[in-house]
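Structure (tokenized):
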């Protein structure tokens, strides 16, 4: 594989090229409204026997299961019909993707369903400050990056999708290495990821999308375990320049728990160069346990979205002011780092 090349996000250069519920069924022992007469052939109870019949446990068993059974059957039928309709659309090509390859239907119905067990059951992600993400319009979410493999970005994407009141989608900016890997390339595009370049970020923000960026890049995700939760350099402020041009708020995001899923105790640099990847991690379980070593540790995660930093009050030429970009970049970085320390103090256990 050729050496991975990350397109600098700092550069402003362009890049080429209500279904109705089923009717409730009346139970066998239910009374007829209005005192209607029994049907022909039906045995009418003798006077004094009505109360005994209502208290009959056999009658109660007959009456109760019928109502939920009809509802369960109707719900199953709707799910089957929806699944078949989804398959038909996929087979016939009757579905939409945007200019970046984002497939909203596939993401909602399939990909999020695959990620949700990790999010809810394995990492047990707790989300704070989701109200700081605007209900509409563009916004740039800036987060710390860690964990050896970029699972923190995926969990952040599920957090926004599942907990935001407006059910918004987060579009992540990724290094070009992601789009060089087979299968991963297609899945990333379907999930709405795109290259970490200023052109793509600006287009998404101008379209009113939520855009996620992790400015630490490989420096953050591949740092040794001894440097956990210590933010690396944020670059030259390219993400700030993009937000200023689009006049969209910047939302800092702090993620605790991802650092410990693959504790990186070493880096086989020679092997990494041969494979054309930024680093080759050595953890307590990988590569010593083979494929089992690739299973992440079940840490407890917390994702906190901080108060947004407004950019619409700055003049248009502010995007060209290096001192302003440096100050805003430092402000975002300090807010993320401070929140990380606060969450770590509050955390009682890595796993619980």
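Design, position by position:
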């Amino acid at each position: 594989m050729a050496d991975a090349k990350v397109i600098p996000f700092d550069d402003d250069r362009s890049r080429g090229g209500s279904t109705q519920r089923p009717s409730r069924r009346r139970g066998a022992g239910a009374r007829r409204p209005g005192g209607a007469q029994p049907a022909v052939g039906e045995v009418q109870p003798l006077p004094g026997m009505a109360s005994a019949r209502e208290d009959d446990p056999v009658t109660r068993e007959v009456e109760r299961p019928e109502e939920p059974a009809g509802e369960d059957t109707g719900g199953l039928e709707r799910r089957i019909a929806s699944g078949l309709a989804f398959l038909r659309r996929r087979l016939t090509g009757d579905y939409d993707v945007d200019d970046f390859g984002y497939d909203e239907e596939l993401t909602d119905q399939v990909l999020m369903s695959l990620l949700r067990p990790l999010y809810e059951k394995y990492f047990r992600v707790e989300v704070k400050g989701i109200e700081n993400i605007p209900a509409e319009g563009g916004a740039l979410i800036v987060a710390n990056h860690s964990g050896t493999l970029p699972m923190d970005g995926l969990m952040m994407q599920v957090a926004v999708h599942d907990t935001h009141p407006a059910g918004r989608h987060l579009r992540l900016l990724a290094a070009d290495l992601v789009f060089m890997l087979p299968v991963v390339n297609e899945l990333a595009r379907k999930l709405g990821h795109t290259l970490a370049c200023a052109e793509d970020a600006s287009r998404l923000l101008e379209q009113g999308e939520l855009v996620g960026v992790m400015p630490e890049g490989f420096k953050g995700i591949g740092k040794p375990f001894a440097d956990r939760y210590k933010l690396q350099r944020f670059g030259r402020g390219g993400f700030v320049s993009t937000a200023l041009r689009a006049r969209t708020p910047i939302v800092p995001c702090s993620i605790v728990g991802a650092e410990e899923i693959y504790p990186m105790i070493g880096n086989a640099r020679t092997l990494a160069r041969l494979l054309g990847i930024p680093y080759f991690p050595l953890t307590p379980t990988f590569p010593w346990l083979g494929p089992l070593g690739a299973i992440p540790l079940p840490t407890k995660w917390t994702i906190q979205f901080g108060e947004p930093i407004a950019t619409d009050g700055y003049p248009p030429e502010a995007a060209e002011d290096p001192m302003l970009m440096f100050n805003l970049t430092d402000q975002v970085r300090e807010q993320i780092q401070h929140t990380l320390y606060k969450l770590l103090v509050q955390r009682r256990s890595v796993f619980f």
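Reviewer-requested clarification: The mean pLDDT is 83. The beta strands are 126-128, 139-143, 170-174, 194-195, 210-213, 250-256, 266-267, 281-282, 302-305.
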